[in-house]
Amino acid sequence: QGRMWAYTVGFTVLPHVGGFLGWFINRKEIPVWYEKLKKPSWCPSRKIFPVAWTVLYTGMGYASYLIWNDLGGWSSKAIIPLGLYGAQLALNWAWPPFFFGARNLKMALIDILCLDSLVIGTMCSWYRINKVATLLMVPYLGWLAMATCLTIRIWKDNPEQKPGKSE
Prior knowledge:
The protein is an all-alpha fold. The protein contains seven helices and no strands. Helix 1 (4-26) runs antiparallel to helix 3 (48-70), helix 1 (4-26) packs parallel to helix 4 (79-101) and helix 4 (79-101) runs antiparallel to helix 5 (105-127). It has one domain: Ferritin (Up-down Bundle). It is elongated and about 55 Å long.
């Protein structure tokens, strides 16, 4: 019981690690490249993203702890629900390097479409285990829906530059 707080904190903080690294590595590309992209009028302000991701990562991290705890830790029953969660987290962390780092809008779009599917799969696998954990993922899925639409629009509205062409 005394170490449970460490697990709670660990699971809750874990999603922030990849999110922070993605921001840190790509932070110079945001003002240089991202600001020049054509974006729809409903694109959230850059100031919203860190606040939104802090809330979303905290909720999904704590939700993963609830699932882990309800399944008795690292058990065979946890393989699929936590495996789906881990896979979606990996795709979540992969999006910034595709989008900002490689400036590969098509790969970022493929990534986020797969991410959407994995988040839905994660939520479906969690529903019978812990409904609160599933509900904690709802804001994340909603944000991803917006982010997916935004990625589609940016991909469509900003044709990729061919090598050798000047900007």
